[in-house]
Write a sequence for this structure.
């Protein structure tokens, strides 16, 4: 079995309300929301999970506070010795703009996304404003549907609700399976006791809840919420 190590790269950071992450919970609590690219290294392929934001402003003091640097995409890749043209595969959790704005730089990559999500990109639900329909125009797209293996050591689980066609990514590592959620969430979506908390932004709350339970019950050795702050301070996972 092919295995990979995961390098979280922070390629943006927003200040927002915790309620954006947790439906009907914790409104009024201001938080910082890191935007990640996950680079899969030390395996047979050079793979990215998402490509993040193209432009952003870093609030003063957050890097010191949280113990990670926030870098533009090309700088982030350079920090691990990669260039955009080195990337062979991009697996998208979903196609909201903050997860795919740098695809066009990866000129040699194949981009994997769910059929339902690609349809939403070109014909967005009327209540969702975060699909930019041209973000994949310059890349080679591979359509997947449902729970599938992308390459040996990397597979996806169909986890809609937050978006029409979100997919969570399961990575085989030397220390077990790591699951990165395909929907926007942080630590508070997965309390130690009690049910998972639906993302505050969703198209279908019940479907989003079923997706949360699907990933929580999958049996991964490590579950990474897509915007969890603790992740950015980890040089390598696991």
């Amino acid at each position: 079995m092919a295995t990979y190590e995961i390098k979280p790269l922070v390629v943006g950071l927003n200040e927002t309300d915790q309620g954006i992450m947790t439906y009907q919970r914790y409104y009024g609590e201001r938080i910082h929301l890191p935007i990640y690219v996950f680079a899969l290294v030390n395996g047979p392929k050079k793979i990215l999970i998402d490509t993040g934001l193209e432009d952003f402003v870093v609030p003063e003091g957050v890097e010191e506070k949280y113990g990670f640097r926030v870098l533009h995409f090309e700088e982030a890749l350079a920090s691990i010795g990669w260039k955009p043209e080195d990337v062979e595969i991009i697996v998208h959790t979903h196609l909201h703009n903050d997860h795919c704005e740098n695809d066009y730089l990866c000129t040699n990559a194949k981009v994997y996304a769910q059929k339902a999500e690609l349809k939403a990109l070109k014909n967005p639900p009327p209540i969702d404003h975060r699909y930019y329909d041209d973000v994949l125009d310059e890349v080679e797209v591979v359509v997947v549907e449902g729970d599938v293996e992308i390459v040996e050591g990397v597979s996806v689980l169909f986890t809609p609700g937050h978006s029409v066609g979100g997919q969570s990514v399961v990575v085989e590592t030397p220390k077990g399976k790591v699951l990165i959620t395909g929907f926007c969430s942080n630590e508070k979506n997965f309390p130690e006791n009690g049910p998972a908390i639906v993302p505050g932004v969703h198209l279908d709350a019940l479907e989003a809840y079923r997706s949360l339970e699907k990933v929580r019950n999958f049996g991964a050795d490590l579950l990474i919420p897509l915007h969890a702050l603790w992740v950015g301070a980890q040089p390598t996972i696991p």
Observations:
- The chain is about 15% helix and 25% strand.
- Residues 194 and 213 are 11 Å apart (CA to CA).
- The mean pLDDT is 97.
- The helical segments are 62-66, 73-78, 115-122, 205-216.
